[in-house]
Amino acid sequence: MSDVFTRYEIGLTQLLERLGSDHPSYVELLTLQTRLLENIAQVRDYSDSENLRSERNRILAQLNRLALDVLGMSFNELYESLARQPHREGDSALESSQQKHPSTSRLK
Q1: Does 82 or 6 have the greater pLDDT score?
Q2: What is the mean pLDDT of the chain?
Q3: Is residue 60 part of a domain?
Q4: 1 in a domain, yes or no?
Q5: Which pTM does this prediction carry?
């Protein structure tokens, strides 16, 4: 199942894979991933709030900057380009993301 945050989870998975664990910005990306996934989990569990939206926007701005610096495209462009790709069963970034982060795939 998916919701409005699925695109962020897919983008995070792809950004991590493209960056690689030996990249100097990898630890920063892991920190941003943790913060965004925690934010999404709180929204899914308790509903959204102005504070959560504000924090999420700050995280997304940092992800956009990092992706632009590293890939030459923003985080938004990355997940939007992935959304346009056809879905193949058993080979999706969403399935990979949900396997790595099962708590973020729950829906209320």
Answers
A1: 6
A2: 84
A3: yes
A4: no
A5: 0.77
Cβ 29 vs Cβ 19: under 8 Å: yes
80: containing domain: 6-105
Using the 8-state DSSP alphabet, how is residue 85 labeled? S
Per the structure, how many domains does the chain have? 1
Q: Which DSSP letter does residue 86 get?
A: P
> Is 58 part of a structural domain of the chain?
yes
Residues 34, 36, 42: CA angle, nearest 5 degrees: 100
How far from 60 is each of 67, 68, 108, CA to CA, in Å?
A: 10, 12, 23
In a domain, 96, yes or no: yes
CB-facing half-sphere around the CA of 2: CA atoms within 13 A? 13
The per-residue pLDDT for range 73-92, each reduced to its tens digit, is 999 999 888 777 765 444 44
Specify whether the CB–CB gap between 27 and 20 falls below 8 A.
no
Asked if residue 101 has pLDDT above 90, the reply is: no
What's the distance, Cα to Cα, between the start and end of the chain in Å?
11
